[in-house]
Structure prediction request, 118 residues.
Amino acid sequence: MVGVISGHYEYNYGNQDPIEFEIYAWTEQGEIFSQPPFFTARGKDVVGGFEIYGQLFGDDGIIWAKLYTLTLDLNQADRSGWLYKGRFDHHRRSIKGTWHNSISVMHGTFALERSSVN
Prediction:
């Protein structure tokens, strides 16, 4: 799934917002390679810019943390994040799953598709 991926996330029983990010492969040592068990990404959505840190597992499992950097004032920065867990469909080149934040009751679903090939 290295490359640009886009789609939407749902919340509050049917509301949707777009999301897009670019996935980069990385190893525990930080080296780039073609078949990643680990990945990182950068992107933005209606909330703001974010970074993603994730891992592939099993034949089709994927999990990641999406972390926003929110500037509250000039002297402080706060990180807010969400946990995404889903399944990768190799034939459709897509991912579907759920997201949530363990410290709130907010949760929802998401759907993404790869839009470019590197």
